[in-house]
Write a structure and sequence with these properties.
Keywords: Kinase, Magnesium, Metal-binding, Transferase, Zinc
EC number: 2.7.1.4
Catalytic activity: D-fructose + ATP = D-fructose 6-phosphate + ADP + H(+)
Cofactor: Mg(2+)
Low-confidence stretches: none
Oligomer: single chain
Structural class: alpha/beta
Number of strands: 10
Order of helices and strands: EEEHEHEHEEEHHHEHHHEH
Strand content: 15-25%
Organism: Novosphingobium malaysiense
Mean pLDDT: 95
Helix content: 25-40%
Distance between the termini: 19 Å
Length: 296
Amino acid sequence: MSKNFAGIELGGTKTIVVQGRPGLIRDRLEFPTTTPDETLSRAIEAIELWQRQDALQAVGVASFGPIRVARDVPDYGTMLDTPKSGWSGARIVQPLADALRLPVALDTDVHGAGVAEWRLGAARNCRVIVYLTIGTGLGGGVLVDGEPVHGMLHPEIGHVRLRRLAGDRFAGACRFHGDCMEGLLSGPALEARFGRHPSRVDAADPAWTPVVHDLAELLAALVLTLSPQRIVVGGGVANKQPHLLPAALCRLPEILGGYLRDFTPEVLAGMITPPAMGDNAGPMGALILAERAAAE
């Protein structure tokens, strides 16, 4: 008999709650992410219903952040200072564990999606991978042999600053750093730059030129610092602007400047890809996190 798990993808805009097992989502519920109490209560209600119908083994949570992911500290599962209003200091793991009486595993949303792409999607058979999501924010997760990399906290790739395109005067939109990568490439940043929704800006419009440059700079930094076998680029902005990644890939060899001959345009095009799992990567990753928690 197959084991069943619950997974929660806790996003800054919407929350997805699923039940099933890695490779199979049986039930799925989506709703807006509002306050911590309301959002977690809705997730608990759905999981309790599924638990009555079919015993669940554990819960996995793939959450926006920054969030405390080290399990050996008192504030494990607590949201740190986040741009999401009302969520700084919110406890995520404890309310779920108390209500559901199940093991609860937590990691970042990008690590959850990365785990799914490593096991089931675009990064299978790759030892070192990066999952990059460009949406309401910009986040990056790093995995080695399928295990998320944690140090003092977790990678905050979206908040690095890199070389800007000469003449680009956009100040950036990050409330912490201004023109970090999240402040330049996220959906709200693009809307602030363009003065309208990015979907209303034609792909051929030169307004995209500095955006393409910024993404290419970020990809170059990841290639050079981590030497991954795969960089998977997902998220709402990347998925809804399909011209953006190919344009950045065209710019990337120039930014790399001919350094490291292994990184030919053909190699880079195979190494840096869209996600294979689409919108299911985060929820599926949460189920994999739950499976791992149940096995401990």
